[in-house]
Amino acid sequence: MKNKSMDGILAVLAQTKYLVSIATFFLIIYTRSTHFLYFVVGFAWTATLAKSLKKCIKQPRPSGPGYGMPSAHSQIIMFVATYFQCAAYKTTPWLVAGVSLFSLSVVWSRVRLQHHTVSQVLVGALVGILSALLWYFARSSFVFPSIPTFTPYST
Protein backbone atom coordinates (compact mmCIF):
# COMPACT_ATOMS: atom_id res chain seq x y z
CA MET A 1 0.00 0.00 0.00
CA LYS A 2 1.38 3.39 -1.03
CA ASN A 3 1.56 6.34 1.29
CA LYS A 4 -0.15 9.21 -0.61
CA SER A 5 1.18 11.97 1.65
CA MET A 6 4.73 10.69 1.16
CA ASP A 7 4.18 10.66 -2.61
CA GLY A 8 3.06 14.31 -2.41
CA ILE A 9 6.13 15.33 -0.44
CA LEU A 10 8.41 13.50 -2.87
CA ALA A 11 6.67 15.17 -5.82
CA VAL A 12 7.39 18.60 -4.33
CA LEU A 13 11.01 17.69 -3.54
CA ALA A 14 11.48 16.44 -7.12
CA GLN A 15 10.75 19.99 -8.31
CA THR A 16 13.49 21.61 -6.22
CA LYS A 17 15.30 23.14 -9.18
CA TYR A 18 12.21 25.21 -9.94
CA LEU A 19 11.65 26.19 -6.31
CA VAL A 20 15.28 27.24 -5.84
CA SER A 21 15.31 29.13 -9.16
CA ILE A 22 12.16 31.08 -8.25
CA ALA A 23 13.46 31.84 -4.75
CA THR A 24 16.78 33.01 -6.24
CA PHE A 25 15.00 35.31 -8.70
CA PHE A 26 12.96 36.96 -5.94
CA LEU A 27 15.98 37.29 -3.65
CA ILE A 28 17.95 39.05 -6.40
CA ILE A 29 15.12 41.54 -6.74
CA TYR A 30 14.66 41.92 -2.98
CA THR A 31 18.31 42.25 -1.94
CA ARG A 32 19.76 44.10 -4.94
CA SER A 33 23.05 42.94 -3.51
CA THR A 34 26.37 42.27 -5.22
CA HIS A 35 26.93 39.61 -2.59
CA PHE A 36 23.81 37.78 -3.65
CA LEU A 37 24.84 38.00 -7.30
CA TYR A 38 28.21 36.56 -6.27
CA PHE A 39 26.30 33.70 -4.61
CA VAL A 40 24.35 33.11 -7.86
CA VAL A 41 27.62 32.87 -9.82
CA GLY A 42 28.83 30.27 -7.28
CA PHE A 43 25.53 28.44 -7.65
CA ALA A 44 26.05 28.28 -11.44
CA TRP A 45 29.68 27.24 -10.95
CA THR A 46 28.78 24.29 -8.71
CA ALA A 47 26.03 23.21 -11.13
CA THR A 48 28.55 23.23 -13.98
CA LEU A 49 31.03 21.34 -11.81
CA ALA A 50 28.40 18.66 -11.09
CA LYS A 51 27.66 18.18 -14.80
CA SER A 52 31.38 17.99 -15.59
CA LEU A 53 32.02 15.42 -12.86
CA LYS A 54 29.14 13.28 -14.17
CA LYS A 55 30.70 13.26 -17.65
CA CYS A 56 34.12 12.32 -16.24
CA ILE A 57 32.97 9.62 -13.80
CA LYS A 58 30.19 8.15 -15.99
CA GLN A 59 28.59 6.10 -13.21
CA PRO A 60 25.03 5.10 -14.16
CA ARG A 61 21.96 5.96 -12.11
CA PRO A 62 20.19 3.13 -10.27
CA SER A 63 17.28 3.54 -12.69
CA GLY A 64 16.70 5.69 -15.74
CA PRO A 65 18.98 7.29 -18.28
CA GLY A 66 22.05 9.43 -17.69
CA TYR A 67 24.86 9.45 -15.21
CA GLY A 68 24.35 9.67 -11.46
CA MET A 69 27.73 10.38 -9.85
CA PRO A 70 27.63 12.87 -8.22
CA SER A 71 24.01 13.78 -7.64
CA ALA A 72 23.71 17.31 -9.06
CA HIS A 73 20.56 18.00 -7.01
CA SER A 74 22.40 17.02 -3.82
CA GLN A 75 25.47 19.02 -4.76
CA ILE A 76 23.57 22.17 -5.64
CA ILE A 77 21.14 22.14 -2.72
CA MET A 78 23.97 21.52 -0.25
CA PHE A 79 25.91 24.39 -1.84
CA VAL A 80 22.87 26.63 -1.28
CA ALA A 81 22.34 25.45 2.30
CA THR A 82 25.99 25.64 3.33
CA TYR A 83 26.57 29.06 1.78
CA PHE A 84 23.39 30.33 3.41
CA GLN A 85 24.51 28.89 6.75
CA CYS A 86 27.81 30.75 6.47
CA ALA A 87 26.20 34.02 5.41
CA ALA A 88 23.08 34.23 7.54
CA TYR A 89 23.38 32.06 10.65
CA LYS A 90 23.82 35.09 12.94
CA THR A 91 20.95 37.14 11.54
CA THR A 92 18.28 34.53 10.78
CA PRO A 93 19.03 31.26 12.57
CA TRP A 94 15.41 30.04 12.24
CA LEU A 95 15.54 30.51 8.46
CA VAL A 96 18.93 28.81 8.27
CA ALA A 97 17.48 25.84 10.17
CA GLY A 98 14.55 25.65 7.75
CA VAL A 99 16.82 25.80 4.69
CA SER A 100 19.04 23.11 6.23
CA LEU A 101 16.13 20.75 6.88
CA PHE A 102 14.75 21.35 3.39
CA SER A 103 18.14 20.63 1.80
CA LEU A 104 18.53 17.38 3.73
CA SER A 105 15.06 16.31 2.64
CA VAL A 106 16.00 16.96 -0.99
CA VAL A 107 19.13 14.81 -0.62
CA TRP A 108 17.06 12.03 1.00
CA SER A 109 14.42 12.26 -1.76
CA ARG A 110 16.99 11.57 -4.49
CA VAL A 111 17.63 8.12 -2.99
CA ARG A 112 13.97 7.52 -2.09
CA LEU A 113 12.90 8.29 -5.67
CA GLN A 114 15.65 5.92 -6.88
CA HIS A 115 17.29 8.63 -8.98
CA HIS A 116 20.61 8.08 -7.18
CA THR A 117 22.41 5.68 -4.90
CA VAL A 118 23.42 6.62 -1.36
CA SER A 119 27.05 7.04 -2.46
CA GLN A 120 26.02 9.34 -5.33
CA VAL A 121 24.08 11.68 -3.03
CA LEU A 122 26.79 11.60 -0.36
CA VAL A 123 29.49 12.55 -2.87
CA GLY A 124 27.23 15.23 -4.36
CA ALA A 125 26.46 16.63 -0.90
CA LEU A 126 30.13 16.64 0.09
CA VAL A 127 31.22 18.38 -3.12
CA GLY A 128 28.42 20.93 -2.64
CA ILE A 129 29.45 21.63 0.96
CA LEU A 130 33.13 21.99 0.06
CA SER A 131 32.30 24.20 -2.94
CA ALA A 132 30.18 26.50 -0.77
CA LEU A 133 32.85 26.77 1.91
CA LEU A 134 35.49 27.59 -0.71
CA TRP A 135 33.19 30.09 -2.47
CA TYR A 136 32.21 31.80 0.79
CA PHE A 137 35.80 31.92 2.03
CA ALA A 138 36.92 33.50 -1.26
CA ARG A 139 34.13 36.07 -0.99
CA SER A 140 34.82 37.03 2.60
CA SER A 141 38.61 37.01 2.24
CA PHE A 142 39.33 38.33 -1.26
CA VAL A 143 36.35 39.39 -3.36
CA PHE A 144 34.16 41.54 -1.08
CA PRO A 145 35.80 41.46 2.35
CA SER A 146 34.31 44.76 3.55
CA ILE A 147 30.70 44.25 2.39
CA PRO A 148 28.33 42.70 4.94
CA THR A 149 26.53 39.48 4.06
CA PHE A 150 22.94 39.36 2.80
CA THR A 151 21.93 42.85 3.84
CA PRO A 152 19.00 44.09 1.75
CA TYR A 153 19.85 46.96 -0.60
CA SER A 154 23.61 46.70 0.01
CA THR A 155 26.13 47.06 -2.80
Automatic annotation (TrEMBL):
GO terms for molecular function: sphingosine-1-phosphate phosphatase activity. Residues 36-136 form the Phosphatidic acid phosphatase type 2/haloperoxidase domain. Signal peptide: none annotated. Pfam families: PAP2. The chain crosses the membrane at residues 9-30, 91-109, 121-138. Keywords: Membrane, Transmembrane, Transmembrane helix. InterPro entries: PAP2/HPO, PAP2/HPO_sf. It comes from the Eukaryota. The keyword Transmembrane applies. This is Phosphatidic acid phosphatase type 2/haloperoxidase domain-containing protein.
